[in-house]
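Title: Request for sanity check on diguanylate cyclase prediction

Description:
We are preparing a figure and want to confirm that the structure record we downloaded matches what your pipeline produces today. Could someone re-run it with the sequence below and paste the raw structure tokens into this thread? We only need the token string, no images.
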Amino acid sequence: MNDPLDLNEFHWLLTIVQSIDVGVVVLDRDYRVQVWNTFMENRSGVQPKDANSRSFFSLFPEVDREWFSRKVESVATLGTPAFTIWEQRPYLVRFKNYQPITGQEDFMYQNTTLLPLRSTNSEISHICLVIYDVTDVATNRHQLQAANAKLQKLSSTDRLTGLYNRGHWEESLKVAYARNQRYGNATSLVMFDIDHFKRVNDTYGHQAGDKVIERVAEVVREHVRDSDVAGRYGGEEFGVVLSDTDKAGGRFFAERLRKAIEGLEVLHEGQGIRFTISLGVADLSRPSISHADLIAWADHALYASKKGGRNRVTVYE
């Protein structure tokens, strides 16, 4: 740099590097720090004089040394930049998050860029690491995902019971039916409703009726597997799609559920309410046209249970 303009440019560049709101670190090929800007000083608490010539890995022991070294060597060999984004790797170096708006995050989410720096002889003897604070972006994305998940849950679940609503439950049954038709895996359906539920409402009131329905849903959740789909079909009627289960397995599940409900007592305003359920079981071991056939068969079996005296399980034959 022979003229004042070059010196000015150099001074300006240093000022920019120190004042920009990103981390700038220059490393030699032995990963020793050569440049350490104000962003890095403020976030790490390490002053430039203490960082200078220190190993990057000694300053940040949390860095995956093997992965980072491989990344740097690729940049040095190919002479092209490399990038990381927070979705793949939340951070390179662990800095605390001090942003007031996004204070719920414990650490700073980061995107990073690795740039090859050529010497005057065109050799790549240094690598520039740039660290961007993207905590705002990550937090907003997480909040949006949480909101979408909540909306999805609200749209697919019954508000009173927390079980799937009829629309989602029936769509799940359609999927199970299609899988059965294609692969032949056993699928059964249990339909049941609460015996004399109108009497519960008339005797104890609708709040007591809601409490009974909620308690039934809790028992159903305790008995189903993760692969099963339990839902409220309407009013006091429920349905459970049992995957990889034939009608014998369906009967076994239904009988366990029946006994569990029979042993319940729901307390409401100091009064104990006891009740039973009637259940119908059907599977896809016979020819069918659509998922609606399975519903009709299970419903037919449920009607037979009610006609036969209630508090019993009937399998559609």
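Thanks, this matches our download. The chain has two domains: 4-141, 157-315.
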